[in-house]
Amino acid sequence: MTRLVRENRIEERMAEAAQQRIRQPQDPYHEQFCCRKELVLCTDNSGDEFAQVIEQVHADETKGTTRTFTQIRIGDTVYGLRIP
């Protein structure tokens, strides 16, 4: 998945895309001491969704934000993250 994201400039496209953010509810202590999570749905200019991403914004600012691409669309093909 990482290679597909890099080769198809998905993160660059995300910067230009419309993003719908859906906060993923968690225990308040988890958010205070670990991170808060959001599901990010990215759509291009034609309104087609091309990426679903889970973003974890860490409470410790030195850790920054972690992105996990759960689904991306390249052309007519949809790729989903498969966890073994």
The 3D shape can be described as elongated
Give a quick account of the main beta sheet: strands, pairing sense, barrel closure.
5 strands, antiparallel
**Helicity level, as a percent range?**
10-25%
Series of secondary-structure elements, N-terminal to C-terminal = HHEHEEEE
SS class: alpha+beta
Arrangement of strands in the largest sheet: 1-2-3-4-5
Residue windows where pLDDT falls under 50 for at least 5 positions: none
Number of helices: 3
Question: What is the count of β-strands?
Answer: 5
Round the mean pLDDT to the nearest integer and report it: 92
What is the number of independent domains?
A: 1
What is the alpha-carbon Rg in Å?
14 Å
N/C terminus separation? 13 Å
Estimate the strand proportion.
over 45%
In short:
With 84 residues, the protein is an alpha+beta fold. It is 23% helix and 48% strand.
Description:
It is a single chain. By secondary structure, the chain is an alpha+beta fold. It has one domain. The chain is 23% helix and 48% strand. The chain is built from three helices and five strands. Strands 1-2-3-4-5 form a five-stranded antiparallel sheet. A hairpin with a 6-residue loop joins strand 3 and strand 4. The longest helix has 7 residues. The chain is elongated. The mean pLDDT is 92.
